[in-house]
């Protein structure tokens, strides 16, 4: 069970708790989960739809938009920058864009809440407009590294001033005539790639980004959808080179947002673990750069069938049929990490319930998510009687063969995915699990507890 060479690392974080916490005590599921659901829209695609539509000429109609806190922050920011962003009905939005380079200086600080994606992507837009802006976020986001975008974006000629260690709040003096960038990503990050490409929209000439491992390509796909010229080439080492032609004429186009595979992950794992469960999740995004979890679960022995695969709004989608399964341990290679980077906490819960040992290789990026997810996932499992180890940048989980003791208190550290992972663990643990705060679930999956209850989870609300 070895992983091969590991990649570079960044500093971990400390934590704080929410002022209006919503604790939850989860007891073992009393009946099999069953039924058919849809999960909310994809978070990555939703942020991009609002941003790109604001930079396009004309009116874009978005359906299936995720109305989680993170995306609502992006909507508010684009409004503050002069775009007309309105909700017609739940999930149904209209955006009147201003065109590339035409956004207006915001009159107040842009608060991106809990959202790293909103903050990083927006940095690329702000650096490439001739205006001064200030960005902040909640306690979690203010601890996360922004240097990873500040460093490449400084190459445009924009000036950044941030707190110690490149943390928010941050002031940006952008340029109306930014220089185009040629950048090789030191970490596999779709957010950094997207920030560079967004800055390239308003730069004369070609912007070039090279990524060592392919990361989610929603930015490239959606830029093309809006009319930009984007060329993508695979490198012999399994990476990609993306070349964007600057100053394209972005024109409004309708966007259909698929269900978020990262949100589907929670009901999927719950259904795999709760005895007798049998559920269907319809219209889930199946972009191949997002489906690492599904492949991994299938390797573990999951009865996870993908049916009715089709293309909707330019993205591959399908329906997932999930049945309770007997899972065995798995080794996840490091180069699969970008395609499932948000799914490790819930995969760790599946590995804890499985038989045998699992190793997740090269997961150092987990240290700089909404929480230090490596430390927080270890604590989630250990506090509930599951043995783990961190070996270098690998996480090792010792499966309990369907016997997670539970009985622990889980600290979620303002991290939605930790809270949802803990809730699934509680559904199959032998003793009740106390979650300190479920409020942050609303950042990516509003209505999660209710939707799970519609399948029979029995969360006490
Ligand atoms: C995202 C990229 C990933 C992911 C995040 C969404 C995006 O972050 O964790 O939830 O939409 O581009 P990194 O780029 O930091 O890996």
From TrEMBL:
PANTHER family, per the entry: AROM/DEHYDROQUINATE SYNTHASE, PENTAFUNCTIONAL AROM POLYPEPTIDE
Enzyme class: transferase
Tagged with keyword Transferase: yes
GO MF term set: 3-phosphoshikimate 1-carboxyvinyltransferase activity
Any one Gene Ontology cellular component term annotated for this protein: cytoplasm
Binding sites annotated in the UniProt record for phosphoenolpyruvate: 43, 116, 144, 191, 373, 417
Pathway: Metabolic intermediate biosynthesis; chorismate biosynthesis; chorismate from D-erythrose 4-phosphate and phosphoenolpyruvate: step 6/7
Compartment list: Cytoplasm
Gene name of the encoded protein: aroA
Organism: Acetobacter okinawensis
Keyword annotations from UniProtKB, A to Z: Amino-acid biosynthesis, Aromatic amino acid biosynthesis, Cytoplasm, Transferase
Protein's name in the database: 3-phosphoshikimate 1-carboxyvinyltransferase
Assembly and interaction partners: Monomer.
Reactions catalysed, as given in the entry: 3-phosphoshikimate + phosphoenolpyruvate = 5-O-(1-carboxyvinyl)-3-phosphoshikimate + phosphate
Catalytic residues, chain numbering: 342
EC number: 2.5.1.19
């Amino acid at each position: 069970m070895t992983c091969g060479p590991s990649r570079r690392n960044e500093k971990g974080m400390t934590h704080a708790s929410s002022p209006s916490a919503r604790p939850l005590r989860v007891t073992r599921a009393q009946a099999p989960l069953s039924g058919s659901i849809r999960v909310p829209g994809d978070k990555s695609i939703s942020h991009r739809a609002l941003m790109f539509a604001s930079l396009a000429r004309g009116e874009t109609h978005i359906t299936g938009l995720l109305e989680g806190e993170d995306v609502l922050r992006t909507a508010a920011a684009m409004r503050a920058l002069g775009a007309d962003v309105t909700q017609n009905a739940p999930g149904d939005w209209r955006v009147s864009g201003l065109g590339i380079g035409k956004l207006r200086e915001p009159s107040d600080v842009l608060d991106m809440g809990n959202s790293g994606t909103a903050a990083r992507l927006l940095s690329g837009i702000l650096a490439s407009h001739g205006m001064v802006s200030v960005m902040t976020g909640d306690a979690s986001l203010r601890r996360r590294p922004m240097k990873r975008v500040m460093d490449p974006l400084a190459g445009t000629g924009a000036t950044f001033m941030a707190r110690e260690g490149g943390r928010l709040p941050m002031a940006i003096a952008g340029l109306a005539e930014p220089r185009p960038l040629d950048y090789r990503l030191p970490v596999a990050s779709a957010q950094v790639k997207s920030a560079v490409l967004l800055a390239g929209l308003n730069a004369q000439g070609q912007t070039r980004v090279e990524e060592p491992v392919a990361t989610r390509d929603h930015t490239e796909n959606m830029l093309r959808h809006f009319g930009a010229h984007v060329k993508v080439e695979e490198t012999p080492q399994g990476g990609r080179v993306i070349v964007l032609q600057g100053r394209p004429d972005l024109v409004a186009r309708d966007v259909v947002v698929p269900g978020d595979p990262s949100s589907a992950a929670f009901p999927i794992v719950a259904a795999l673990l709760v005895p007798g469960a049998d559920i269907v999740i319809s219209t889930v995004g199946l972009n191949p750069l997002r489906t690492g979890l599904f492949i991994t679960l299938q390797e573990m022995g999951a009865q996870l069938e993908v049916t009715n695969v089709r293309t909707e709004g330019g993205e591959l989608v399908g329906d997932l049929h999930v049945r309770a399964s007997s899972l065995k341990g798995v080794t996840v290679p490091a180069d699969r990490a970008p395609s499932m980077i948000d799914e490790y906490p819930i995969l760790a819960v599946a590995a804890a319930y499985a038989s045998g040992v699992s190793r997740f290789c090269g997961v150092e990026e987990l240290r700089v998510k909404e929480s230090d997810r490596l430390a927080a996932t270890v604590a989630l499992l250990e506090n509930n009687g599951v043995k783990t180890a961190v070996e270098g940048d690998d996480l090792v989980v010792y499966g309990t063969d369907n016997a997670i003791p539970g009985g622990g208190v889980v600290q979620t550290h303002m991290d939605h995915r930790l809270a949802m992972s803990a809730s699934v663990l509680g559904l199959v643990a032998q003793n009740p699990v106390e979650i300190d705060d479920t409020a942050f679930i609303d950042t990516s999956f509003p209505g999660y507890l209710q939707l799970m209850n519609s399948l029979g989870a029995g969360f006490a609300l």
